[in-house]
Amino acid sequence: MAEKLGIGLMSGTSCDGIDAALVRFSKNGTELLAHRFTPFPKKLMEEVVSASGPDGRSELICELNVKIGKLFGKTAVEICSKRRVSISKISFIGSHGQTIRHHPTGKNRSTLQIGEPAEIAALTGCTVVSDFRPADIAVGGQGAPLAPIAHYDLFSSGSEARIVHNLGGISNITFLKKGGKLKDVTGFDTGPANSLLDIAVRKFTDGVKSYDKGGKLSLKGEVNKSMLTYCLSHPFLNKKPPKSTGLEVFGVDYFDELYAKFKRLSEPDFLRTVAAFTAFSSVGQAFRFLDIVPPVRWIISGGGAYNTAVVLGIQNALGERGSVVSSSKLGIDKKAVEAVLMAILANRTLKGEPGNIPLVTGAKRAVVLGKITRL
Amino acid sequence: MAEKLGIGLMSGTSCDGIDAALVRFSKNGTELLAHRFTPFPKKLMEEVVSASGPDGRSELICELNVKIGKLFGKTAVEICSKRRVSISKISFIGSHGQTIRHHPTGKNRSTLQIGEPAEIAALTGCTVVSDFRPADIAVGGQGAPLAPIAHYDLFSSGSEARIVHNLGGISNITFLKKGGKLKDVTGFDTGPANSLLDIAVRKFTDGVKSYDKGGKLSLKGEVNKSMLTYCLSHPFLNKKPPKSTGLEVFGVDYFDELYAKFKRLSEPDFLRTVAAFTAFSSVGQAFRFLDIVPPVRWIISGGGAYNTAVVLGIQNALGERGSVVSSSKLGIDKKAVEAVLMAILANRTLKGEPGNIPLVTGAKRAVVLGKITRL
């Protein structure tokens, strides 16, 4: 296999900015060469949050599609210049875009990501593969999670069972059996990760902080059992996989519900309990729905992997059944995993290889994902 | 050149339904084999109109993207079964999608079309090329009009100068010099065609009629000079090309303005004057902005070409300078031209050929348009 360079671009449901990963594909496998995070300017973040609500306006969506596309393109240019790689050496860019709506089930299954790939292509001169989710939706799937196939590429092991746990706005896990093949890979969304925590922090700090850095605020509190029990009774947790979710379920509305019921708690206790909710719901569902024979290596990535309250919660929930390790320890910076996935998915698309796993998304068949833009 | 079959799918700013064209590309040129119009169900039409307003909701846009994609796919399947061509013989589908917003100028130039290509691909098994406008926007163009390059393919002539006039929701003209080459092609949007007429008819008939079939209602009236003069003073008509426009300029708001000012007119006089506005604005701008040496053959297509009041108006405005002929007389059914264009653009994209004309759209350079979806 000839060596190829690709860039993955991801902007998650936290609406905080763009992760870019510069990735080398070669016979030695998939290597992360550089990672870069470009925060959304405050006004843009507010616009994205506004557009993502059910009442988001068409006018704003049309404009943001171009604005976000330009910012994605700019980020791709910057990661190259930072690593002193000429952008002309980049074979392709994989772009997730920004999710505006995601309705994985029901009679109007649909998903909407924006971030115009033609803008990325115009700024970079690269072939762009974008918008991976709608193809899975079109063949009966939920359009998510898409991470497992790439988690398999990056983290599968012949010597131990592994869970790869991505803690973005939403939390998803992938199960990689010891010595398993692609056909053995399973995974699903487990519920909220940073989405609820970020909303709570913004509320408690009057918008001064947008997230709980390192979990410092949460660590001042203690888990409230009554609230945790209430959270863990959420019906999504009982749904059998395949399943996926989004801010429609674990966003502002759910926060408001929790806050109305538990505002008597101190703010640190509230936050610590939300962190515990992410941890216990993920570990609980893993052992309930997946055929895991402990011990398992529990690999964490995403912004939530920096939140010590969440990480302690996961280790606590796991107990003797497994040990937590950051993806960074395995060679892929924990903030970069999602962006690397986008490069891996784009590479598959350009080779004509499917990118979804029917067992994971519920799709009727495996299909090539995404749209190819080449100006 | 090996023979290839393609399908073009178009749904215009009139929001009335989908035109499909089955097209053969061979060394004999581009031939229309079949045309089919699938009206939008009434509820879908209402949803499209609602989503297209500046306050169109993200939730609805997300759902409609899938619904419209499915209907586009179904239409492609139907045109094949009608013509008894196996869909497996179709090399590609070109899909315009449904325009939701179009902002060709200003600091937030952007355009938004929906109609998920992955849904079309899933239903047909075909390679789909979609969403042609954003690439032109990304290189500084207005994303419209895109018709001229295809008008050139279909209608250029060594023996006479030709205008190709598409009367969709919006009106656009292409100028084909006698014996001219692709580099000589020019064209622009001239203003409203059916958009204003349809809004007026819906209002005057309390929604019983959605358009003025054959121009019958308009033909009962006479042109009101004062209103026509007012219409012809619209600033868009004085803008130099390249230029494009949409329902943001010539939709409900402009109708309301006209109606407030001229509601004293009888309804037929009002309609006849709107028809004359389309005719006189198009011919007037053609001779003002294009280097036409009369006589010119004025080829009309689109739904408005069925409106006798509009057609008489064009011939009247042209006078001795030219003669009007339907595209149907030249081998391409006048209702099918826009759909044929989509097949032509898709074919260019798959060959890696540019689809925009910088002189026409204002783009800095010619680029390959669209996104390729192949499940």
Structure description:
The structure is a homodimer of 375-residue chains. The first copy, chain A, is built from 14 helices and 12 strands. Chain A has 375 residues and is an alpha/beta fold. The first copy, chain A, folds into 2 domains: 175 residues, 2-Layer Sandwich (Nucleotidyltransferase, domain 5), CATH 3.30.420; 184 residues, Nucleotidyltransferase, domain 5, CATH 3.30.420.40. In chain A, strands 1, 2, 3, 4, 5, 6 and 12 form a 7-stranded mixed β-sheet that branches. Chain A has a 5-stranded mixed β-sheet with strand order 9-8-7-10-11, with helices on both faces. In chain A, α6 runs antiparallel to α11, α8 crosses α11 and α11 crosses α12. Chain A is globular. At the A-B interface, α2, β4, β5, α3 and α4 of A face α2, β4, β5, α3 and α4 of B.
How many helices of chain A? The count is 14
Q: Averaged pLDDT of chain A, please? A: 95
- Chain pair sharing the greatest interface: A-B, 46 and 46 residues
Class by alpha and beta content of chain A: alpha/beta
Count of structural domains of chain A: 2
CATH superfamily caption of the largest domain in chain A: ATPase, nucleotide binding domain
- Report the major sheet of chain A: 7 strands, mixed
Portion in helices of chain A = 25-40%
Question: How many E-type strands of chain A?
Answer: 12
Oligomer: homodimer
